[in-house]
Amino acid sequence: MKFPGQRKSKHYFPVKNRDPLLAQMTQQPQRFPTYITGIDQTLVDIEAKVGDELLERYALPKGNSTLIDDEKAHALYSELKTNKLVSDEFAGGTIGNTVHNYSILADDRSVLFGVMSNNIEVGSYAYRYLCNTSSKVDLNYLQPVDGPIGRCFTLISECGERTFAISKGAMDKLTPEYIDKDIVQGASALILTAYLMRASDGDQITDAALKAIEYAKEAEVPVVLTLGTRFLIEEDPSWWKSFIKDNVTILAMNEDEGEALTGFSDPLLASEAALELCDLVLTTAGPLGLYMAGYTEDSEKRETSHTLLPGMIPEFNRYEFSRPKLKAACDTPIKVYAHISPYMGGPEKIRNTNGAGDGALAALLHDLASNTFHKANVPGSSKHKRDGLCYSSFSQVCKYANRVAYEVLAQHSPRLSRGLPEREDSLEEAYWER
Ligand SMILES: Nc1ncnc2c1ncn2[C@@H]1O[C@H](COP(=O)(O)OP(=O)(O)OP(=O)(O)O)[C@@H](O)[C@H]1O
Ligand SMILES: Nc1nc2c(ncn2[C@@H]2O[C@H](CO)[C@@H](O)[C@H]2O)c(=O)[nH]1
């Protein structure tokens, strides 16, 4: 496990400052392995820049992720290829992206549940998926299926908006028997997407996800849900609210999905409302940056040294130096909020916004898994006297998530090809010498 490390301003990450008592021990305890698990629809993204006219012709609502039948997929693919509109083909899937990015950042293991074609030809989509996935993502638990994996036409409009058209292939064929109970229960977190809840035609991926949730809850493994697209949530916000309340520990969403869920267009108010349903919320808001909302114990709250920010909740970031906790782990829970503007104002040239939110979530998961790792390997640390959900403060996790999102924006693929630089070029030497 590589630790998230030092970021742009001072923080209390005691990477080098081991607990003074434990430091006396020359013999380190045996390393305890840490990993996260995720379930996804195995998908390859086929990216193309298109005009709105094409979206209308194929009846694809702008910004949505729509399932399309084989006939439409064939016509769309032929049209994109004939007109040489396909710019890139990458492994995708919102959870596949997230666990891949986690493994790149942590330089550590994650386990992906999903399907994979039984027969794979060199150059096929299944082949590409495997080639574009980090070797630290454990693919040994994938369910073999007859037929191709899914294709996600990622259609980018002039204005930068992305519209997904999904040709599902066998991506929803995952069955509950392929969810390994021990693996789920031994993980630091289980990561799911709202898309898993829309299986149809007898496909069982929804049941597989529910089974995994049952296992995770039994072992108190945090369940993390990312909302996918506002269209899915808008269909039945009350159903999603009770689903989240019953099952989810950490919720990740963008501001549109937040509005669909809570009715609040303001991302801070949406985060606050979502916090009534779960323990921790990460809300990305495009060029506005990102917000976190969560709980901490009143007696452990830590006041920020940053400027207090105005917003729908005045001075909402006052306790952003606190560490997130499960609400149930607090005697007197208080709500804590944090915000950060895009790292360095955003990259000079945004190559692709696809996956920036997935990247931000991967950073949060890295911090969370670092906490499990630290707790297991340095159990006597004062840090773990009271159970925290993350290793770092709200403020620090925001910085990290924001930095990772920036990296995704500055490259073409939604998946990181390498970790973050150990030292940021933008920071003066003196910062690193402290
Ligand atoms: N135009 C932009 N300028 C600067 N930063 C941006 C911009 N768009 C996104 N970001 C950064 O990327 C983060 C995530 O972006 P966004 O809110 O678009 O995610 P998303 O819609 O969930 O993405 P996806 O679903 O593709 O993963 C933001 O919180 C911000 O830090
Ligand atoms: N699992 C899953 N991912 C999707 C779906 N639609 C779009 N995405 C992914 O969302 C990612 C961006 O967050 C892209 O890389 C897409 O592959 C879907 O229906 N299911």
Automatic annotation (TrEMBL):
Enzyme Commission (EC) number = 2.7.1.73
Detail which positions bind ATP. Answer: 284-289, 357, 402
Q: Show the catalytic activity.
A: guanosine + ATP = GMP + ADP + H(+); inosine + ATP = IMP + ADP + H(+)
| BP GO annotations | GMP salvage; IMP salvage; purine ribonucleoside salvage
Q: Which PANTHER family match?
A: CARBOHYDRATE KINASE PFKB DOMAIN-CONTAINING PROTEIN, SUGAR KINASE
Enzyme class at the top of the EC tree: transferase
The job of this chain, per UniProt, is described as:
Catalyzes the phosphorylation of guanosine and inosine to GMP and IMP, respectively.
Q: Which cofactor does it need?
A: Mg(2+)
As recorded in UniProt, coiled-coil segments are none
InterPro entries listed in its UniProt record: Carb_kinase_PfkB-like, IngK, PfkB_dom, Ribokinase-like
Family from the record: Belongs to the carbohydrate kinase PfkB family.
Q: Does the keyword Electron transport apply?
A: no
Full protein name: Guanosine-inosine kinase
Spell out the molecular function terms from Gene Ontology.
Answer: ATP binding; guanosine kinase activity; inosine kinase activity
Domain Carbohydrate kinase PfkB per the UniProt entry, residue ranges: 134-293
- Keywords, ordered alphabetically: ATP-binding, Kinase, Magnesium, Nucleotide-binding, Purine salvage, Transferase
Question: Which residues take part in binding GMP?
Answer: 40-45, 93-97, 198
Check the record and name the Gene3D superfamilies matching this protein: 3.40.1190.20
Write out the pathway annotation from the protein's UniProt entry: Purine metabolism; GMP biosynthesis via salvage pathway; Purine metabolism; IMP biosynthesis via salvage pathway; IMP from inosine: step 1/1
